[in-house]
Design goal:
Largest sheet: 6 strands, mixed
Low-confidence stretches: 223-244, 320-326, 407-446
Oligomer: single chain
Helix content: 40-55%
CATH topology of one domain: Alpha-Beta Plaits
Mean pLDDT: 77
Distance between the termini: 83 Å
CATH architecture of one domain: 2-Layer Sandwich
Length: 497
Amino acid sequence: MNRFTRNNLFLIIVIVCSCIAAAVLLVFSLIRYFAMSQCISQIEKLRQEIIALGKRKPAPVDENREPIMNNTKLYANVDEQLLVYFKPHMHKVAKIFVGKLQESNPQKDSDGRIVPLTPEKFVNDYNEMWNRSQHFANRNFNYREFREHRFKNWSQAIREVMPEAQKYTSEPLDPDSTAEVLLAALGIPRTLMEQPENMVKYMNNYQAALIKLMTNVKFNAVTDRIDWFGFAPDPKPANLMTQFPNPREQYPMITTVWDIYGDVVTRMVKCSKIIKKSNGTEIPWTKEIEGELKEKGEKFTTYDDSVETFFGLGLRGIPDRSVSNSNTPAAEAMNQAMGGDDSGRFKIYRLRLQIGGSIAGVRTMIKALDEAYKDHRFYIVRSVALFAERDDAEEIFKLQAEELGGGEKKTDNNTPEQNVGRGRGRGRGRGAVPAAEKPVAPVPAKTSLAQQKAEEARAKEANSKLKYYERIGYGNVLIGDSEVCRAVIDFDYVVLK
C-alpha cells in the first residue's frame, strides 16, 4: 500500500484536488441555482403585478407617469389639510402664545444667532423641566421657575391671549387655567398641579358654568350617575372626592372628557333657530338656506327651538362608578372609556347624549355635531333613537271610554305630561283645543245640574246638525300633532394623537 502511494502520489493529489474542486463547484452551482430560482419567482411576481397595473385606469405607462405623480402629491396635500381639522381646537391660540414668549425671550446659540422658539422646542423644554423630579411638590417649584425665569413675560402673554382662548372653550378661564389649556393644546397633559383640591375646583366651576348656559333648559336626569363624568343641577362638591377618589394620573383624562362635555353643551344651547316654510315644513336654519328662500321669494318664518329638556350626557359603556377605584373589569372598562380608544393616528371617545325637544331641534343638534369640524372639533354621529314623549292614541281611547261609559268628565283632566308640546302653534291645527276639551257656553252659577246637562245636550245636538266641516274640532290633528320627543344620540369624538 505504501509502495502504491509512493508510486502514484501525484495521481492521488490530482484526484483529491479534483474532488475538492468538484465539491466547490457543486456548492457554487447550488447557490446560483437557488438565486436564479428566487429571481425567476420574483420576475413572475413582478410580471403579475405589471399585468394587474396595466389593467388599472390610468395605466402606469410613461405618458401617464407625470399625471400619476401629480395626483399623488395632490392626495398627500389634501391629507395634510384634513389633518388640520383634527388638531386640538386651541392649537392656533397656543402657537400665538409661544410666539409672544419668543418676542421677549430670544435665545442665542454659540454663534450668537437667535434660535427660534417653535412649539416643538417649547414642549421639549417643558418636558425636560417637568421630568427633573418625580415628586409633585418639586415639579410645582420647577414649573414656577420655568415661568418666572425662563420666560419673564409669561403672565403678560397669558393675559393677552386669554380673551382669544375663551372663544374656544366654555370653561371659565383665569390666568392659571388659560396656561393649562394652552399647554394641553401643545400636547402637554393637564395635571392640575396634581392636587385633588384643584380638580374639585375645576369641576365645580365647569359644572356651574354649564348649568348657567342652560338657563332655558329643563333638567330631567334619567340616571343618578350624572356626577363625575357629567353634571346635575344640584352639584355636591363635598362628595366629589369621596365618591370618586381618582388617582392623579387620571386627571388629564378627566379634564379632556369634561372639555368634550362643555363643547357639546355649548353647541346644544346654540342650536335654537328653525325655519318654517309656508307649507308647514320645518328645517334647521342656516344663513345659506335663508338666502336661497329669499331669492326664490318663498314665504317663511323663523323661531327659536332650543333643546327643552336635558336628560344626560356621558361616556358610553361606563359601568357603576362606585367601583371605579378598584381592580375590577368594570373599573378597567371605565378607565378605558376615559382614556379613549386608540385607532391608528387617532384617539376616539365614545359618548351618548339624551335630550328632549322637537324633531327639528334634534336635527339641528345633529347638524351642529356634523359641522363642528370647522372649529377643529370632530364628531361622528353613530346612531339616533327617537322616543315619543306623549301617546296621543292613548288619550283618544281614554276620551272614547269616557264617552261610552257616560261618566262625568273632569273639568281639568290634563296633566302636565299630557300637555307637553301643546300650544306651540306649529303645523296645521296645532295649538287648537280638541273637540272633547272645548269648553261649553258659560252657565250661570245658580243653574242646576240638570239645566247644565240640558244645555250641554242641546249644544251637542246643534253641533251634530252642522255640516261635518263646520263642526267644532274639525281639522284638528288628533294623533301626531306633537313634535316633542326624547332623542338618544350616540356619537364619537375624534382627536389626533
